[in-house]
Amino acid sequence: MSKPNQTLGEFIIENQSDFAYSSGELSRLINSIRLAAKVVNHEVNKAGLVDIVGAYGETNIQGEDQQKLDVYANNKFIQTLTNREIVCGIASEENDDFIRIEGHKGDHQNKYVVLIDPLDGSSNIDVNVSVGTIFSIYRRVTPIGTPVELEDFLQPGNNQVAAGYIIYGTSTMLVYTTGHGTNGFTLNPALGSWYLSHPDMKFPESGTIYSINEGNYVHFPQGVKDYIKYCQEEKDDRPYTSRYIGSMVSDIHRNMIKGGIFMYPKSSKANNGKLRLLYECNPMAFIVEQAGGKASDGFQRILNIKPTELHQRIPFFCGSKKMVEKAEEFMRVSEETKKDQAQELSFSNK
Ligand SMILES: O=P(O)(O)OC[C@H]1O[C@](O)(COP(=O)(O)O)[C@@H](O)[C@@H]1O
Ligand SMILES: [Mg+2]
Ligand SMILES: [Mg+2]
């Protein structure tokens, strides 16, 4: 693949090798996501000019105040995917339940389901900080020709056929994988085309950036506290740099370019953390692993986890392989220490 800094002119995504791997229907599905992304990008870029910032006035199933852009992005992606008749079902962060899409003959002949976080980083919308969209695509597991069911969405992340994110930042990028590496495309807003600006992205094996909301420090498990202290020690290549945007797509995208680890662990305030397994952690884990990075809940690989609920949350450690492994080591040691202390306590009480 030629390097993007040569004068290669504008690439239209269909000519790129990445589509060489995807079936016609899957490529049409990713095309519709690209189309919806351009529409949402246009709205995000003029958010201050039109009445699209601020609260929508309702809360979603997460109990979060929906932002107008949350709802706008959600409607755009659902509308585009429904009209293009490529999916048999959609699950969204902004919808309590999944949506069945019958097809114009009502015959449920489409084979893919999409799970989506239409607007990630909602707290940043009104302050002009980059936000994103995250999507995850599976083949349905129930018979084609029948209405899609919950089990079609509750598949382990290993089953994903594609996953990606759009980052609406200083430039708009689409980064996605179909299981054959991770590629980044930058939108040329003048032409409305996507340029293969970051072919075959590789997550640096190590790094010096750690991203975590340290405002929750006192509520973190001991293993997370110990790892944060490790990052802050004056030793070897440390202290590391703390960078936290508050928009997971942006934090992970920066780390994918520069190296680093993003963590949203459980805490005494949120027993499973905040991020959702199905439409945030699984797609990001697939994308990051395909670039050589790592993603776990602190103990087990995210992509191996069998989901039980549509909106279930999971602790999330994601980024440079060596940094995630180091954080997991602190989590393991802390758990073992806790078990030893509990054992000693039970012996002394006998
Ligand atoms: O403000 P907090 O608690 O640090 O949470 C920030 C995290 O919440 C999120 O905004 C959650 O995503 P949504 O905006 O899609 O709800 C992540 O993008 C981000 O990493
Ligand atoms: Mg999100
Ligand atoms: Mg969201």
From TrEMBL:
Keyword Magnesium: yes
Subcellular location: Cytoplasm
Chief subcellular location: cytoplasm
Residues annotated as binding Mg(2+) 1: 93, 117, 119
Domain Fructose-1-6-bisphosphatase class I N-terminal: from-to ranges: 7-199
Protein residues bound to Mg(2+) 2: 117, 120, 280
EC number(s) from the headed UniProt entry: 3.1.3.11
Key words, A-Z: Carbohydrate metabolism, Cytoplasm, Hydrolase, Magnesium, Metal-binding
UniProt key word Cytoplasm: yes
Pfam families: FBPase, FBPase_C
Pathway in which this enzyme or protein is active: Carbohydrate biosynthesis; Calvin cycle
Residues in coiled coil: none
Entry's transmembrane regions: none
Record note on quaternary structure: Homotetramer.
Name of the protein this chain belongs to: Fructose-1,6-bisphosphatase class 1
Species annotation: Christiangramia antarctica
Organismal lineage: Bacteria, Pseudomonadati, Bacteroidota, Flavobacteriia, Flavobacteriales
Name of the gene encoding the protein in the UniProt record: fbp
